[in-house]
Design goal:
The chain is of the alpha/beta class. It contains 7 helices and 5 strands, in the order βααβααβααβαβ. It has a 5-stranded parallel sheet. α7 links the parallel β4 and β5. α3 runs antiparallel to α4 and α5 packs across α6.
């Protein structure tokens, strides 16, 4: 797997941080290969908020808080801010256009930011990325 820049989704972050997650071993192996090839992650503060919520729900406040510091401090991650204009474009370009899909607002914003950043691959265990026309990192 070549290095480069890929989007990282909530599910991948949770899998990396949660040894009991069904995708943990696969996520760790993929992330290690990507990092060894010089890969870098991009995501949004909405994904970061979802990650914190998932960790809070699964493991409690202490684990949720301690899960944030490593990804915020790691230079391999770039966190994009989300404006109201981006949310509006995401609603129009993804939620309205794919009205028959159950994309979340975070999904739609992720797709919009991926398009803006010229990203084609996502580290995700979520088929929504494929439906939206992106590739899953393998």
């Amino acid at each position: 797997m070549p290095g480069g820049i890929a989007w990282i989704d909530t599910g991948a972050l949770v899998a990396l941080a949660s040894p009991r997650d069904q995708y943990h071993a696969r996520a760790v192996a993929l992330a290690q290969s990507f990092a060894q090839a010089g890969g870098r992650w991009v995501s949004s503060v909405l994904v970061l908020a979802e990650f914190h919520w998932q960790m809070l729900r699964r493991s409690g406040p202490a684990v949720a808080r301690s899960s944030l510091a490593p990804v915020l401090a790691d230079p391999a991650y770039r966190w994009l801010d989300v404006t109201t204009a981006i949310v509006s474009r995401a609603v129009n370009n993804w939620l309205e256009r794919f009205h028959d899909q159950d994309f979340s607002l975070t999904d739609a914003v992720s797709f919009e930011l991926m398009k803006r950043e010229g990203l084609t691959e996502a580290f995700a265990f979520d088929r929504h990325y494929v439906v939206a026309g992106f590739q899953l990192l393998q």
